[in-house]
Every structure is written in C-alpha cells, then in structure tokens.
Amino acid sequence: MTDTLARQERHYIVIAALLALFLGALDALVMSAAMPTIVAELGGMHLYSWVYSAYFLARAVSLPVFGKLADLFSARRIFLFSITLFLLASAAAGAAPSMVFLVGARVFQGIGAGGIFALVDIVLSDISLPGERGKTLSFASSVWGISSIVGPTLGGFIVTYMSWRWIFFINLPIAVLCLAGIGLFLQDKRERNKEVHLDIAGIVCLTGFILSFFAIFSLFAYAPLFIQGALAKTPMQVGMAMLSLSLGWSCGSLVLGRFVDGAGGRTA
C-alpha cells in the first residue's frame, strides 16, 4: 500500500487517523472534570462509575473484535463504520436526558472507540514507509499523552464557561473531518487473512495491558470527585490538578517510539 500512496495523501491519512484516535482518547479523560456537574444535573449518583466503566468495558471488548474484522473484511470500511458509530453515540450522549441514557450512549461510544483504536494501528502500520513505522506509531502514543493533558483541562473549561453537553457535541465536526480524510485518501489494498489463530501469549499480554489501563484511568475517574466534592474546588481547578499525571505520558511516548526504531520492539 505504501508504494501507491503519495506523500501528501499519506499525511492526510495520518492526520485523520490521529484525530480519530484523539477523539476516542479524549472522551476517556474529558469526563473527569465534568462528572460532578453531570450528576448534579441528571441525578443518578449510583451510576457515576458506570459512565466510565461502560465506555472502558465496551472499548476493551470491541477492540480485538474490530482487529479481527479488519483481517477478514475491508479495513477502510471498518474504520469508517467505527468513526460513524462514535459520532452518532457522541450526539446521543450530548442530548442525554438521564444518566441511564448517558450510560447507554457511552456503551456505543466505547464500541466505536474500540474500532478506532484497533484500526489506527493497522492503518498507520500499513501506510508507513520502511524504517519509519516506529516513529509513525509513536505519534499515536503521543496523542494519548496529549489528550490526557488536554482532556481534564478542556472538560473543566467547557463545564465552567459552556455546558457539559458540549463535551460530546465538540466531537461531531472533528469526526466528520476524520470520515472525509479516511474516505477520500485511504486505499484498502491489504491482504486479508481468513485463517483463525489463537495467540495465548498475546491474550495474556493484552489482558495485562487492559488491567494496567484500568488502574491508570481509575485516577481520572475518582480523583476529580474527591477534589471537587471533598476539597470544594471548581471544575477548572480539577482539570488543572489532573495535569500532573499526564505530562510524562506525552514526552515518554515520543522517546520510546524512536527507541523502538533503534533498538527493536522486544528490547524497548
């Protein structure tokens, strides 16, 4: 695929894929500063944790499923479907009249995000030039770091000066741009593997990876509730307080990407 793509087209695809990844990563983190306000408006304190858990669980379950679907069918179509599902679920979450409805919308957001996360790595690997794959994939990792820095602060800003519903509505125009970039420039020419192999070691590694992410993101879920509820801080102050957890993420991912190119993935 890489030989048939012009450099400019490749850049458009990378930008669209990273923007889609940014949306999925941002929605995992932007909620932290907004949740106390959302609960105050919609009620349903007993569902507080499910707004996070529904998203993370749906994403974790759907991610390997979409990865397999990309092997069996068109990666381009699966990517477009995932972004579209995330877009529609974001619109539904922004219009949520109750916590139950919001949790349901977050489930579909998580499914869409799982597809996005799976297809971003596949697409970036496919279009990367030889010798640049580690650097290209490090951009994806740095997007996580950037979203972790921007997310809590952006959530606090939106809740303070606008409405918590815009946390979801802001996804819509960006998702449309992602659909345009992938739909117009991505060529689906990868070979499809219809053989099924059960990778036990991979499953164990994936399980450890998911559990590690749950441990990290639990801080984003419950620390804001403590800071705003117990310490009586504003949403903007909550967002600023969460920055300390995120700064090393963005810098470390860029360093690791170049280390992978030089030393190899196993050593890294």
**Average pLDDT, all residues:** 81
Note the run of SSEs as H and E: HHHHHHHHHHH
Number of E-type strands: 0
Instruction: Report on the biggest sheet.
Output: none
Rg on CA atoms, Å:
19 Å
User: Spans with pLDDT under 50 lasting ≥5 residues?
Assistant: none
Task: Provide a count of the helices.
Answer: 11
| Residues in helix, % | over 70%
Tell me the CATH superfamily.
Answer: MFS general substrate transporter like domains
CATH architecture group name: Up-down Bundle
**CATH class bucket:** Mainly Alpha
Tell me the β content: under 5%
Q: How far apart are the termini?
A: 27 Å
Number of domains as seen in the coordinates? 1
The outline comes out as globular
The CATH topology, please?
Answer: Growth Hormone, Chain: A
Per-chain topology:
Blueprint: H1 7-29, H2 31-42, H3 48-72, H4 75-94, H5 99-127, H6 133-161, H7 166-169, H8 171-185, H9 200-230, H10 235-241, H11 247-263
Helix pairs in contact: 1-5, 1-6, 1-8, 2-6, 2-9, 2-10, 3-4, 3-5, 3-9, 4-5, 4-8, 5-6, 6-10, 6-11
Provide an overview of this structure:
The protein is mainly alpha-helical. The protein has a single domain (2-261), classed as Growth Hormone, Chain: A, CATH 1.20.1250. The protein contains 11 helices and no strands. It has helices spanning 7-29, 31-42, 48-72, 75-94, 99-127, 133-161, 166-169, 171-185, 200-230, 235-241, 247-263. α1 (7-29) packs across α6, α1 runs antiparallel to α8 and α3 packs parallel to α5. It is globular, with a radius of gyration of 19 Å. The model has no long low-confidence stretch (mean pLDDT 81).
